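Course assignment 3, question 2. Fill in each field.
Student: A.L.
Task: Predict the tertiary structure for the chain below.
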Amino acid sequence: MNRTTLSLIAGATALAAVTGFAALSAPDTPGADTTAKAAAQLPVERTSLLCPAPSMSDIAETSYTSFTPVTKGTGSGGKAQLRAAAQESKDGAGGDKGKDGGKTGERKTEKPVLTPKEPGKPVTGDTSGAEPPALVGTADGRFAPGWTVQETTEVAAGTGRGLQGVNCTAPDTSFWFPGVSTAADRTDYVHLTNPDDSAAVVDIELYGKDGTLKSTVGEGITVQPHSSDPVLLSTLTDEQQTNLTVHVNVRSGRVGAAVQALDDKLGGDWLTASTDPSGSLVLPGVPKDATSVRLVAFTPGDADADLKVRLASPSGLITPAGHETVHVKGGMTTAVDLGDVTRGEAGSLVLTPTNRSVPVVAALRVVRGKGDKQETAFIPATRPVGTRATSADNSAKGSTLSLTAPEGAATVEVTASAGSEGGAPVSKTYTIKAGTTQDIEPPVPSGLKGTYALTVEPKSGGPVYGARTLAATEGGAPGFTVQTLPDDRGTVAVPEADEDLSVLQK
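Answer field:
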């Protein structure tokens, strides 16, 4: 058997380790053709999620909500747990000791913050006291497909006050964050969490309005095994810029990454990574009462990008007056203030190339309220819902689901799970017209007690993009946080093949 055949079998074996269902047979008859069959969508069998340390404020209150949708094709076994990670120094590129004075990556074994009991029912937990840790979570078996954990923090006062929310993320090797800042009134941290048994080495690259910001401190940051390191961006450069793009590039290993952006006057929230650089982007779920919307875009290559800017409103795609297009110079961050672009209606921003397609990343900074009663949230460009998207930590009041179908009409089924403390699931079907955004009050479980989760499943039509907004009044300010709803990656496409692979032999 030659190297090509061995590589194929090795690839299928690796896939089997993820899904538990892939199979590949050895060749039987030399010279026979291989017939590829349609790929099957099968449940994943293991998932990792990483939650950043929520807040250093003594008056912050953080809750966690874990949910796994019921997925066909899973077995009866498995479990999911979230445990505390070790914490590095708070202000820079790693350190030799954790906060308890021991070696980095070491933490006494603690009981899990969350241990879900069954798919289909949310489980909640919380942390108390100052400096709660980052969390490292794993799920396998029936708990793995679509596992979603929401971290929600209420900060009553001070820098970053308001409602901060983030979906805990899977580890990866590259993250783009347009919309960060090193301005004097901003305190932005990049949180890096390593779930593995070996150290990860990370570069943090910064790009401003004139290109790359020089920084040697951001190179070769070591994140110890099973630990988390919040890196203060202002320690990586002497330049103060309001609008920056950060690229987290992992040289070895893998990490979870998220940016906590805290403003002295405008509150704060988490900024999650933009979807991979693409010629066309969708940024869903701009609140209808947004008083200020800023678009921050960046193209990683040398070529400039010219983008058509449109708003998917309840009545269709419209072009914001005075902001018909945006020009993004290669390797430079561009920011455009769109004002109150939604003008009292639900909206999603749609960016498409005016001519040649150039890969771009983008995010929105959204402000609600006026004067000293303002609050901020961020909306990164996101992937479509795909097969299914999942949103945890919803309540009977304060949750808004925003769905947009920029290319063609779509039918979507939205299911409210059982409540964390009681209540029966409820489903409802919605039709989203082509080019529109629809804000809906999501269905609520009958007899709801506690919090609940939402799943969004497109049934027909074009691609759907979504976001969920949580709103609550914090100290008189309109506290809110927005989480986009990309595919929850509960299933993976596994191609089938006939037994005979001898056609690959040379």
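Instructor remarks: Residues 1-36, 88-108, 499-506 have pLDDT under 50 and may be disordered. The first strand starts at residue 36 and ends at 43.
Grade: pending
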